[in-house]
């Protein structure tokens, strides 16, 4: 039986406050196959960046990638925002496989392959920190603190004030557009990841 433990601040097993939330086995979740592994990045955390560029990755994010072949995260500049996109190595391997389905000499392949050129594998130190390279920190304008923003299968790293502004804009846009999740199993056209 496969299950995942997630730190939880709400009511957990047995009605206790805090502790650990045990997710149901993957075979019992809609859309999940038995044995399929899931890394899920949830919530937003703001952590200090020290003068050496070290920043602690949230414990729940480290736990999401703990069983992967690389003991750290992979980070690259966002194509859309002055932020950083990040994930575990499994997600990058999946993206590489998907990239390899495109014609190797197409412009689309060339454009998307650039994310691998800019990506950096950042190992965790013994305290769960990474060293944020200067070029990445500069792209996201991160100086004193970093906001780790869970996006489900991946996460972003932002300068906290810029993220607050971005979050307010997204909420307003979602409200005015009436954004809703499609039902499970609905045909939604091109899947975005």
Describe this structure in words.
The chain is α+β, with helices and mostly antiparallel strands. It has one domain (38-176): Transcriptional regulator MraZ domain (Chemotaxis protein chec, 3-Layer(aba) Sandwich). It is built from five helices and ten strands, in the order ββββαββααββαββα. It has helices spanning 59-64, 89-99, 107-118, 134-140, 160-177, and strands at residues 5-7, 20-22, 44-48, 54-56, 72-77, 84-87, 120-123, 129-131, 145-150, 155-158. It has a six-stranded antiparallel beta sheet. A two-stranded antiparallel sheet has the order 1-2. Strands 4-8 form a two-stranded antiparallel sheet. Strand 5 (72-77) and strand 6 form a beta hairpin. The longest helix has 18 residues, at 160-177. Mean pLDDT is 83; it is low at 1-35.
Integer-rounded radius of gyration: 18 Å
Task: Tell me the count of domains.
Answer: 1
Number of helices: 5
Please give the order of strands in the largest beta sheet: 3-9-10-6-5-7
Q: What share of the residues does DSSP label as strand, in percent?
A: 15-25%
Task: Label the CATH architecture.
Answer: 3-Layer(aba) Sandwich
CATH class: Alpha Beta
Helical percent range? 25-40%
Oligomeric organization of the protein chains:
single chain
Q: How would the global form be characterised?
A: globular
Average pLDDT taken over every residue: 83
The secondary-structure element order is EEEEHEEHHEEHEEH
Overall structural class, as computed from helix and strand content, comes to alpha+beta
Separation of the first and last Cα atoms: 28 Å
Low-confidence stretches: 1-35
């Amino acid at each position: 039986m496969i299950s995942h433990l997630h730190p939880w601040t709400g009511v957990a097993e047995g009605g206790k406050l805090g502790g650990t939330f045990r997710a149901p086995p993957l075979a019992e979740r809609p859309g999940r196959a038995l044995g399929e592994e899931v890394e899920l990045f949830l919530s937003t955390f703001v952590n200090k960046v020290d003068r050496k560029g070290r920043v602690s990755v949230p414990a729940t994010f480290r736990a999401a990638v703990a069983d992967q072949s690389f003991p750290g995260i992979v980070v690259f500049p966002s194509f859309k925002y002055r932020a950083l996109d990040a994930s575990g190595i499994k997600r990058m391997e999946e993206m590489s496989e998907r990239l390899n389905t495109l014609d190797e000499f197409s412009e689309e392949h060339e454009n998307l392959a650039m994310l691998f050129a800019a990506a950096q594998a950042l190992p965790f130190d013994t305290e769960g920190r990474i060293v944020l390279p200067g070029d990445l920190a500069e792209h996201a304008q991160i100086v004193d603190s970093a906001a780790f923003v869970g996006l489900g299968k991946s996460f972003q790293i932002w300068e906290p004030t810029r993220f607050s502004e971005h979050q307010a804009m997204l909420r307003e846009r979602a409200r005015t557009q009436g954004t809703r999740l499609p039902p499970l199993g609905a045909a939604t056209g091109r899947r975005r990841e």
